[in-house]
Amino acid sequence: MRRLLHLVPPGTLAVGGGLALLGLASYVHLAVAGHALDLADYSSLSVLWSIVFTLGIGVFIPVEQEVARVVAARRSQGLPPGPVLARGATVAAAVLALLVVVTLAGYRTLTDRLFAGDATMVAVLIGALVSMAVAYTTRGVLSGLQLFPWYGTQLGVDGGLRIVLVAGLGISGVTDPVWYGAVLVVAPLLSVLVTLPPVLRAVGGGVPVAWGTLLRGLGLLTVSSLLSQVVVNIGVINARLIDPADVATAGALLSALVLVRIPLFVFGSMQASLLPGLATTATTGDVAGFHGLLRRSLGVVTALGVTGAVGAVALGPWLVRRLFDAPGVLGHGDFAWLAVGTLAYLWAMVLGQALLALDRHRAQAVSWMIGVAALLAVTVVPAPVALRVELAYAVGSVVVAATMAVLLLRRGTRPTTPTPSRPLDDVVATGVSGGL
Q1: Alpha helices in 77-176 (DSSP H)
Q2: How far from the centroid of its chain's Cα atoms is residue 407's Cα?
Q3: How far is CA 418 from CA 283, 410, 425, 426, in A?
């Protein structure tokens, strides 16, 4: 057992345990809500869920990653993390303020077209974004200081509270989607309170951090992060936008995507060591090691994707009805298209890590831009609602992966030696997603 522990990066078990509980909470949350809510209300919750995790993960995980990177760098120099926390909190607050302004500007459209006239869901959306901003910023400090037991505790408390709260709602017979959405506000905030002591100890002191140090890579990282979440989550939102009266399809799609994307959750545990491994071989000029790790990683995710696809296509229609009480509007063909999209998305995640390891952040961002453009082009093609969003997910993911592969091959994947302005710590960034 001790030998096994030495084979994984420090903190993997603590973070992995918390992440596993958080992932389980997502399934429990949607399963209980699916049985408690009617089709219209579950559709509204599905749209809320998709918006929260698209925006929350898309814009706040980059903040966590950059805070963690700078805190870790200062820690190696014996400098306190307080100034980084102050700058990171300011950035997160500015991004949050922008999201709130945009949400309030689109208040009427959101209420009428996405939430069936329920304005309270917009308030829940804003609350959930606030909680994610706070959670991801504090996680950046915990990660940078290598306080992984505290990090894993925050994830675990978040997941555990979601399970307890949503179970209580189900047992109590609550049928208002607002309360099921409010769990996404309350659980993360309480998990931050539980793990606040080490964060408070990091407050104050030290030489101020230059804005450029924190913001240097944040722009491109945010573009890639946000667009990657758009590709994987926008289908549910588009289904509601295309036909607001079709309350069955959006909810069924979210339930189907949660099942089909299980391989992405498994990849999350692998991702923690993939980027550092690729970055290490790249900065040391180990061409064979870089190519070998990239090939093995693509092989692993292909096996994951194919295995998940077989199970999803064979059992998906039955499972979503049994687990989530979803309406029977999706068949085996629908799950096949979603599985194709997930497999291609896995390839894109691995190839994107290779681009980051080679310090090609712009190439990664351009790939996601092209993929989202392809997704939107397919979405507007006249076809049944479910088929349009499924094809859009599949085509968008395939285009992203293909673009990344072409960019890697065109300029080569030969690692280069590191430069003083770009140390290894700068290209190694970890982050944990709270969604599936």
Answers
A1: 82-105, 107-109, 120-144, 148-171
A2: 24
A3: 5, 21, 11, 11
* 52 Cβ contact list (under 8 Å, min separation 6): 125, 128, 129, 132, 184, 435
Instruction: List 419's β-bridge partners, or say none.
Output: 422
* 132, 250, 334, 382, 395 from 387: Cα distances, Å: 32, 12, 7, 10, 12
- DSSP letter (8 states) at residue 115: S
Tokens of 322: 């049994």
Indicate the domain borders of the chain. Answer: 7-215, 217-436
| Type of residue at 347 | W
C-alpha–C-alpha distance, residues 251 and 30, integer Å? 10
Q: How many residues does the chain have?
A: 436
Above pLDDT 70, what percent of the chain? Answer: 89
User: Is the CB of residue 54 less than 8 Å from the CB of residue 190?
Assistant: no
Sign of CA dihedral 416, 418, 420, 425: positive
Say how far apart CA 35 and CA 20 lie, in whole Å: 23
Enumerate residues 6+ apart whose C-beta is below 8 A from 38: 175
**184/196 Cα distance (integer angstroms):** 19
Is 59 within 8 Å of 99 (Cβ atoms)?
yes
Residue of 273, 342, 332, 337 lying closest to 305 (CA atoms) = 342
Q: What are the CA-CA distances from residue 242 to residues 208, 237, 377 (Å)?
A: 49, 9, 14
The identity of residue 47, as a single letter, is: V
Reading the block at residue 14, the tokens are 């603590």
Quick: pLDDT tens for 190-202: 999 999 999 988 8
**Residue 146 to residue 163: CA distance in whole angstroms:** 27
Distance CA 76, CA 60 (A): 24
Q: Reduced to 3 DSSP states, what percent helix, strand and coil does the chain have, rounded to the nearest 5?
A: 80, 0, 20
Burial class (CB in 10 A: 0-12, 13-18, 19+), 4: exposed
Q: For 227-257, how does the pLDDT look when each residue is reduced to its tens digit (9 = 90+)?
A: 999 999 999 999 998 988 888 899 999 999 9
**Distances in Å between the alpha carbon of 28 and those of 112, 160, 209, 252?**
28, 10, 42, 16
